[in-house]
């Protein structure tokens, strides 16, 4: 077994080789969705149940026609929900559409302008979903206390935002992310705000277990090429994290030491 195959991402007891999770919205058509997903090497695909057809409308094209559950892990999400009640109902509907599927992504938004998470409603929904038997991955603020509360509730992964959804601003508060990573006993995945491959690499260098993105790929001028770039960025960041970077210092350190020189 290669080193890469040993370094697997485990979520809710299932192992994945890819640490890049992608969304399925905002592409020009379903074919581009599939091409970008494959270029990203993603195994987990998040789907906004309120916006994407996975069987709700039997007369319309279904995302599952191009991204079948036999090949990918479909991750239903609650994008567009602003209350715990709506989020819970949406995921219960997704479970029926996907034949009892348990792994879900919870997000409860605070307002339409910032799309920042409403943490009281998120905590309430998480508790209800966990008690109902769901494996909950949860979008949250980059607050270490809130992240710990979600883990204590029983969420299988916490997904703090790097910056606002769709903003492309990158990681604005690496210190908070580091605190969350340091304390977490479940996977930590950056969710929201990634703009380019270097943002993904930084997240992984900090020690994140993975990165989820949609707009950064689908909104690029060439989504398929950007998907490949993101794949490489995640891989490079993970390798750098595992390798262990040199410490930062305020003095030079020559690559060729003076001690032991020949002349």
TrEMBL record:
It catalyses: [ThiS sulfur-carrier protein]-C-terminal-Gly-aminoethanethioate + 2-iminoacetate + 1-deoxy-D-xylulose 5-phosphate = [ThiS sulfur-carrier protein]-C-terminal Gly-Gly + 2-[(2R,5Z)-2-carboxy-4-methylthiazol-5(2H)-ylidene]ethyl phosphate + 2 H2O + H(+). Its main location: cytoplasm. Residues 10-257 form the Thiazole synthase ThiG domain. The keyword Transcription regulation does not apply. CDD domains: ThiG (cd04728). It is found in: Cytoplasm. The keyword Chaperone does not apply. GO terms for cellular component: cytoplasm. Transmembrane segments: none annotated. InterPro entries: Aldolase_TIM, Thiazole_synthase_ThiG, ThiG. Keywords: Cytoplasm, Schiff base, Thiamine biosynthesis, Transferase. 1-deoxy-D-xylulose 5-phosphate binds at residues 166, 192-193, 214-215. GO terms for molecular function: thiazole synthase activity. The active site is at 105 (schiff-base intermediate with dxp). Pathway: Cofactor biosynthesis; thiamine diphosphate biosynthesis. Its EC number is 2.8.1.10. PANTHER family: THIAZOLE SYNTHASE. Homotetramer. Forms heterodimers with either ThiH or ThiS. Belongs to the ThiG family. This is Thiazole synthase. The lineage of its organism: Bacteria, Pseudomonadati, Pseudomonadota, Betaproteobacteria, Burkholderiales.
